[in-house]
Amino acid sequence: MKASRRKNIDKGEQQPKKKMKISVQQRKRSSGTEEEGNYPNIDYFNKLSDDVITSLFLRCTLKSLSMLRCTSKLWNNFIISSSFLHLHLTQSTQNGPKLLFLERISLHPAKSSTLRFISIDMDGSREELYTVTVPDDQLACARMQVRFGLVCLSTDCRLYLCNPAQQQLCELPEYSLSATPGYWHFGFAYLHSRKEYKVVHFFYTFPSMTERWCHRGKLRVSHLKCEVLTINKVGGISFNRWKEIADRPPCHPRSVGQLVNECMYWWTYCVPRARVNQILSFDFETEKFLAISPPPSPFEGDVGLFVMDLKGMLCVPDAARFHRSSILDLWILKDKISCTWVKEYSIRLIDFGFKKITNVFMTCNEEIIFHHLGKVVFYDLKRKSFREVEALSHRFFPYGVYSKSLFSLGTI
């Protein structure tokens, strides 16, 4: 009896221990399922439709998107995809464009240049984006074009591409050597239909093999050629080779190109004996050039020849009349085949004084932009109203409309 009672007591004492072991195992299993449940949450997020994920990511800032790229390979591939980059930059350009100013400092003893990029939003807030020193003293006088988050800089013998938001700068592949030193007319564009960047470069062939260089007055249109570079890889820049265009330009371009509805436009030098400046057009789809007659206004000389993109149409400001009457007429090209122009806007700028306004006019979201006494002035064509943003000092010139981009130029 005592032995049986002891066995029963021992069994009774051992039962709670089994329950304790079971409860501990259950807790481990439950905690394990909770811990494992944290990971499927990411899978649930990734199982969302692309439209929902795109909508969520488009609400993030550039800094937040850069951090999200480090958390998941799937997210990284999604964020750096060409379709998402296109949507993100299009939205930021429409909602909150900025002004990008460039300060160029030449360091003569070191034969280098320092570039300093600063952006200003429409409220006047400034942001230091990028400062870099490059072993090229010609960058101190380079021409700048800002297109869809990237900056293209052109010198006598080099082309550079820069993303100030990512603090990256790289040199583009070497292009064909021109027979005329200092001939640096080019064009930089972003084609929305193809989601790729294009760089257009003009150069003159040598009239003879014995000449190392030639004065522009000795060159003819028959010596002029054009080549195009395509930049189409995202998440690490990739260049195609320069492609020489078979079609020859019919006239000499003289300005920086402007993209309008998948075509690039330049003002040209006066046609001999006619003394008329024509506009050169290049269609990226057909790779054909076309010479367009200017509007019925005296577009002559070297001052105030600019082309702009206004609501997807080619716009030419009449700088000649503006200097005479302080009234800025805007001519719109309706048909480039028949050279049909219409004067759609006449803006009175008498209160500003034409001598105090720079000859550089730009457009952004149906607004005309110009520089006046240390301020950047925006004129809304719909509301017919002006607003001003404090500009930087005269050392920060030129400037352009800018939005931050995630496009990576890769390793410099």
User: Can you count the beta strands?
Assistant: 24
Fourth-level CATH superfamily of the largest domain: Kelch-type beta propeller
The number of helical runs is 6
**Main sheet summary:** 4 strands, antiparallel
Count of structural domains? 2
Q: Which strands sit side by side, in order, in the main sheet?
A: 3-2-1-24
Radius of gyration: 30 Å
Query: What average pLDDT do the residues reach?
Result: 79
> Strand-and-helix sequence, N→C?
HHHHHEEEEEEEEEEEEEEEEEHEEEEEEE
At the fold tier of CATH, the topology name of the largest domain is Neuraminidase
Which word captures the global form? globular
CATH architecture descriptor of the largest domain: 6 Propeller
* Poorly predicted parts: 5-9, 16-41
**Helix proportion of residues, in percent?**
10-25%
Beta fraction? 35-45%
- For the record, what CATH class of the largest domain applies? Mainly Beta
Structural class label? alpha+beta
Biased composition (Basic and acidic residues): 7-16
Domain F-box associated beta-propeller type: 127-390
Pfam families: FBA_3
InterPro entries: F-box-assoc_dom_typ3, F-box-assoc_interact_dom, F-box-like_dom_sf
Description:
This protein folds into two domains: 2-88, no CATH class; 89-402, Neuraminidase (6 Propeller). It contains six helices and 24 strands. It has helices spanning 2-46, 50-58, 62-69, 73-79, 82-95, 319-325, and strands at 98-107, 112-120, 126-134, 143-147, 150-154, 159-163, 168-171, 186-191, 196-204, 224-231, 243-244, 258-260, 263-270, 277-283, 288-292, 308-310, 313-317, 327-335, 340-348, 362-363, 367-372, 375-380, 385-390, 396-402. Strands 3-2-1-24 form a four-stranded antiparallel sheet, with no helix packed on it. A four-stranded antiparallel sheet has the order 4-5-6-7, with no helix packed on it. A four-stranded antiparallel sheet has the order 8-9-10-11, with no helix packed on it. A hairpin with a 4-residue loop joins β14 and β15. It starts with a helix and ends in a 10-residue tail after the last strand. Residues 5-9 and 16-41 have low confidence and may be disordered.
